[in-house]
Amino acid sequence: MKHIIFLNFLSAKTALINLIKQPFGSLLTLFMLAIAITLPLTLYLSIQNSEPLLGKFNEAPQITVFMELSADEVDAAAIEKNLQGHPDIAQVEFVPKNKALKDLQERMGETDLINLVDENPLPDAFIVTPKNGSPEALKNLQNSLQGLPMIELVQVDTEWAKTLFNIMQAIKKLTLFLGITLSVAFVLVAHNTIRLQILAKKEEIEITKLLGAPSSFIRRPFLYQAFWQGIFSCCLSLALCAWITKEAEPLFNNVLIQYGMSLNSRFFTPIEMGVIFLIIIALALAGAYLATREFLKALQAKA
Fold first, then answer.
1. Separation between Cα atoms, residue 121 and residue 97, nearest integer Å
2. What is the pLDDT of residues 137-160, one digit of tens each?
3. CA of 184: how far to CAs of 36, 191, 250, 282, in Å?
4. What distances in angstroms separate CA 155 from CA 7, 64, 242, 257, 297, one per listed residue?
5. Pairing verdict, β 89-95 and 151-155
């Protein structure tokens, strides 16, 4: 057991020294690997930083429930109780017709609207916030509310809901697509990097193999080289993410300040960074394993 630990420690140390001995080439490789993962990480961080803002725009569309003009306080109380007990409704706000007329009067300005009409032409209404903002759920809820007694009209902006729903779905799919494709790109870059290192030591590996060295012995130093590349490229990528976020924040705030909003940036949490390191190291090791496996198979077929 001690011998295995020593061999692994020696391979890790040798791989790190070899990486340091070629600073220029190693830095270029690390930059290639870092760039491949910076885009999805930056996109993820941007989405997390934008969550408070997205929450304001991504609120479920409100549904306005208009009662019949002949409805009285008893009818309104019964409808309000029904709405508050509905399983698909998150919040209910009652807007009495007197308040609605007063608000309309304030919007009309100097026009004395109250004296122009003999009686209040506006009905009592309820502002309903659904739990689920998907177009299908809104349509089902609208049909359900429309069937209630003393309800004249149930109005909901379904077109806006559909548009917002489609935009959010597109963003999620784009994030997933970039994450998968750039992860594959990272593996390919790591694979090609290790493959070049293997070709540079081809004769040495062939001699070692002829002397009876197992495949695990030959593969080990390249796996540790990929391990160090994964760690350093991840550190470099996180630094790039921090720089991009810092530079982009004032640009976004210059736009958002016009709407009375601001973007408060945050960085990755320790747990998130731990997960990122594990994923990047796993991708780097996968690329190195594929490269060494390909070479050892060719070497075995040649023998």
1. 8
2. 778 888 888 888 888 888 876 666
3. 9, 10, 33, 12
4. 72, 5, 45, 32, 67
5. unpaired
Q: Which amino acid is at 185?
A: A
| Rounded average pLDDT over 56-82 | 76
Q: pLDDT-derived band of residue 278, with 50, 70 and 90 as boundaries? A: very high
pLDDT digits (tens, 9 = 90+) for 151-198: 888 887 666 656 666 776 777 777 778 778 888 888 888 888 888 878
CA nearest neighbour of 34 among 195, 229, 279: 229
Which pLDDT value is given to residue 164? 62
3-state secondary structure of 122: coil
Residue 58: how many CB atoms within 10 A of its CB? 13
The pLDDT tens digits of the residues spanning 215-231 come to 777 788 888 888 988 89
Q: Residue 14 burial (CB < 10 Å; 0-12/13-18/19+)? A: middle
Q: Other CB atoms closer than 10 Å to residue 127's CB: what's the count? A: 13
Please say if the pLDDT value at position 259 is more than 60: no
Provide the 3-class DSSP secondary structure of residue 156.
Answer: coil
Are 23 and 222 in contact, with CB atoms under 8 Å apart? no
pTM: 0.61
CB contact at 8 A, 173 and 273? no
Q: Which residues contact 44 (CB under 8 A, 6 or more apart)?
A: 175, 179
* Residue spans in the chain of domains classed CATH 3.30.70.3040: 63-156
Give every CB contact of residue 37 below 8 A, 6+ residues apart in sequence. Answer: 182, 183, 186, 233, 234, 237, 280
The CATH fold assigned to 63-156 is Alpha-Beta Plaits (3.30.70)
